[in-house]
Design brief:
By secondary structure, the protein is an all-alpha fold. It is built from 8 helices and no strands.
Length: 175
């Protein structure tokens, strides 16, 4: 078998032919021996780390949902809330990314999106994020009906925003 470079090819000024890397001792898609036990444990569901619970979007025991009235929140507060919900395990990373992306917080918003829409950025103006996400759900169902994963993520975001708002209103009514 030839090596990676042939001296005669280099001497003649031609490019050296490609030689495949040496064969590995195990099959290409087979996990390493130390990884096989961890993969089997995850498939069995016997042990899961707290970080895997956060990525699945399920709440970890003992961590309350952060409180914020999502019907009177501004984009800055929603960006912070999305990170708190992710860290508490209420939203997955993808759901938190969807919720936390607030274009009005970008410094070039007025030159780009604002110039196209004719509306300047108002990152401190309160708005009803629950109705905004319900409108987005209706839009996605109408224009993107086949993306079930996105629909589930939006449903999860709406339910968590409602839960955060209801816990906020319950505490503020008691005070």
């Amino acid at each position: 078998m030839l090596g990676f470079f042939q001296t005669s090819s280099r001497a003649a000024g031609r490019a050296a032919p490609f030689a495949p890397p040496p064969a590995s001792p195990r099959a290409p898609l087979q996990p390493a021996p130390h990884q096989a036990a961890a993969l089997k444990m995850r498939r069995d569901g016997a042990r899961r780390s707290p970080s895997s619970a956060a990525t699945r979007g399920t709440a970890r025991p003992g961590l309350p949902i952060p409180r914020l009235d999502a019907r009177l929140a501004n984009p800055r507060q929603i960006g912070e809330l999305s990170m708190e919900l992710y860290l508490a395990g209420w939203l997955s990373f993808e759901e938190s990314s969807l919720l936390g992306f607030q274009p009005e917080l970008h410094p070039e918003y007025d030159r780009t999106i604002g110039a196209l829409t004719g509306e300047p950025a108002e990152p401190d103006r309160p708005r009803d994020f629950i109705s905004l996400w319900q409108d987005r759900r209706a839009f996605e169902l109408r224009h993107n009906p086949g993306d079930f994963v996105l629909h589930q993520r939006i449903e999860r975001i709406i339910s968590v925003l409602i839960a955060a708002s209801s816990s906020f209103s319950a505490v503020s009514a008691a005070a």
